[in-house]
Structures are given as structure tokens and as C-alpha cells.
Design brief:
There is one protein chain. With 325 residues, the protein is mainly beta.
């Protein structure tokens, strides 16, 4: 079954809300997937990540293949991870610098055409970097409707549409408190015990930072007789069947010498929209990355300097390019 969009209708709000300027709080990493997402595979589940983050408005230069002006946000700050327990039972802590950039192109009606996402996690031996470029073939809602699509208003604030795993409360005109549970968390009850607690601070975000337009992709030739690669992050979300590796694939960054390559057809039965922690991010005014995967082909190249993935949808312009190092 191919991926489809469900269209919602929302009433427009006349209220003008100050932008988010900073976030502070903690995340209890109560699930294996939350630990692995920060490259903490060698530690037991249950570490605590405390953070202080600032928001900057970006003013990207126009890209060569864009029809409309670009806009974006950057989130920077420090994350301190404590209560780390390794396989030998030793405790430790990690101090990390976090830098997230999100740039998007929207049409004159505010609908999303394409977006770029860069996640830079500088944490010593646990450091990693991810880059994602998503070209959308269609979009279910505009920027103004996005928050309403994930949250519903209640008498005490806002809650997630997917269940009572998130509550947002207004503390003052310039501050909100967000409490949430991680997906599949067994320790979070959504009443007295939460995985996530953060203060969302609003105010004058200041002048925009002018940045270069996102870089394009390059075509990489794939050598013959390589080992078959793993399907990676994108492949973990869908049902795959192996197919012949093409002679070329597109990469956001040159991965160096290619050591392995793989290609798969996506049958569509497990396709859908990947939007990790969408309710939490939307409630905090953080850009929500939505990855829509349907029928198509996924190709992954593993090189000396990183791994690049390319998803090409059948019968549409939709593409996803991802690079990890």
C-alpha cells in the first residue's frame, strides 16, 4: 500500500506568540533506542541528559535549485549526561556540545517543498554527525497548521494527539513547561513520573544569522564486487527486498573509498511517515523533521569517511539523502 496523506482543517489563530529563544531541562534516557540515538550503546539504559539550549533564526542564502526564499533555525548549547553505567558497572558522565540546524523551502502558501537537517553531536568518543536532505512530493499542512496537527488544547494546557504522553502548561507569558514520555518507556506514567521536563522560554530572538545555502549532492560511482552493506537508519523503518546495486548513487558528502554497497526495493507495506518525537519538538517550538517513505528504492554506500543513503520514490519527485559519520 502506497503512502497517503490525511488532510486536516484547522481554524486560523489571530494570537501572535513570541518565538522560542531558549530551552532548558532534562531527558531521562529510559529506553534503549534513546541511549543509542546519542551513540551511548556501551552504557546501560537510564542515563540522564540535562541541557541548556539557545535558538537562533537563520537567514540562508538562496540555493541554486530553489524557487523560493529559504528560512531556518539553529539550536546550540551544552548537554551533560550523568548516571552513565558501563558494562563493568563503572559510573561516568559526558559533556557534549549540540548543534542542530534546520533549513526549509516553502512555497507562497507556506507549504513545505524541501528541507535540510544537520545534527552535530560533539561528545568525544561518542561524537557523530548526521545530514539529511528531504525533497517532498506533497505535504499535509502548512507551517501555521503544524503545531495543531500534533497537539490538542485542554483546560490545563496542551496534550499530544497520540495519547496522554505529553502535557504543555503555560507558566507565564514568556515561559511554558513541557512534560513528556519517551515512546515505549516503561518507567514513565505520564502523571507523576516523566522522561522529559523542559522549560520553553519565549522572547525577542534577535537578528537573523546569515548563512550559506545548503550544499548540493554529488554523483558517486559504485565499484563492482563490493560487500553488501547494511540498510542503515532509513532501512530500519520499512520492509525491504534486495535488488541489484546501481552503477551510481547521489551523496550529500563524498564518503571516500567505497567499502560496501547495497540497494533495496521498498514494498510499501511498512511505509509511512517517520517523525521522531514530533509532539515534543512541536510543543517546544523546535522544527519537526518529517520523513515520508513509500514505494521506492533505497541505496546505501559505506565509505572510509562515512555512510550515505539515497531513497528515491516511485512515480514522484520525493527523495531523501542522508550522510552519517
Amino acid at each position: 500500500m502506497a503512502t497517503t496523506w490525511v488532510e486536516f482543517s484547522f481554524s486560523d489563530s489571530e494570537e501572535i506568540i513570541d518565538p522560542v529563544i531558549s530551552l532548558d531541562g532534562y531527558v531521562q534516557l529510559s529506553t534503549r533506542s534513546s541511549m543509542d540515538s546519542l551513540n551511548l550503546k556501551q552504557f546501560d539504559v537510564g542515563a540522564k541528559a540535562s541541557f541548556e539550549l539557545q535558538m537562533t533564526q537563520l537567514e540562508p542564502e538562496k540555493c541554486e535549485n530553489c524557487l523560493y526564499e529559504l528560512e531556518g533555525k539553529r539550536i546550540t548549547g551544552t548537554v551533560v549526561i550523568t548516571e552513565l553505567i558501563d558494562e563493568q558497572g563503572r559510573s561516568g558522565r559526558i559533556e557534549a556540545d549540540l548543534n542542530i540546524s534546520h533549513i526549509e523551502e516553502r512555497d507562497s502558501d507556506g507549504f513545505l517543498l524541501q528541507e535540510w537537517f544537520v545534527f552535530d553531536w560533539d561528545a568525544g568518543a561518542s561524537s557523530f554527525n548526521q545530514m539529511i536532505h528531504v525533497i517532498h512530493s506533497s505535504t499535509p499542512w502548512s507551517d501555521e497548521q503544524a503545531s495543531s496537527s500534533f497537539l490538542i488544547d485542554t483546560t490545563t494546557g496542551s496534550e499530544s494527539r497520540t495519547g496522554p504522553n505529553l502535557i504543555k502548561q503555560e507558566i507565564s507569558e514568556s515561559q511554558e513547561l513541557v512534560r513528556a514520555c519517551l515512546p515505549d518507556s516503561f518507567t514513565c506514567n505520564g502523571i507523576s513520573n516523566w522522561d522529559i521536563e523542559m522549560n520553553v522560554n519565549r522572547g525577542n530572538i534577535g537578528e537573523s544569522l546569515v548563512v550559506q545555502s545548503p550544499s548540493g549532492y554529488s554523483e558517486i560511482s559504485i565499484p563492482n564486487n563490493l560487500e553488501f552493506s547494511d540498510s542503515g537508519f532509513l532501512g530500519s523503518w520499512v520492509n525491504l527486498s534486495e535488488t541489484d546495486v546501481p552503477i551510481t548513487s547521489n551523496c550529500l558528502v563524498n564518503p571516500g573509498n567505497i567499502n560496501s554497497a547495497g540497494s533495496w526495493e521498498i514494498d510499501g507495506s511498512g511505509s509511512g511517515i517517520i517523525s521522531p518525537l514530533s509532539s515534543v519538538l512541536s510543543s517546544a517550538g523546535i522544527p519537526v523533521l518529517q520523513i515520508q517513505i513509500g514505494l521506492g528504492v533505497l541505496t546505501v554506500l559505506e565509505g572510509d569517511t562515512g555512510t550515505c543513503s539515497q531513497y528515491i520514490a516511485d512515480d514522484s519527485i520525493a527523495q531523501i539523502l542522508m550522510f552519517e559519520d
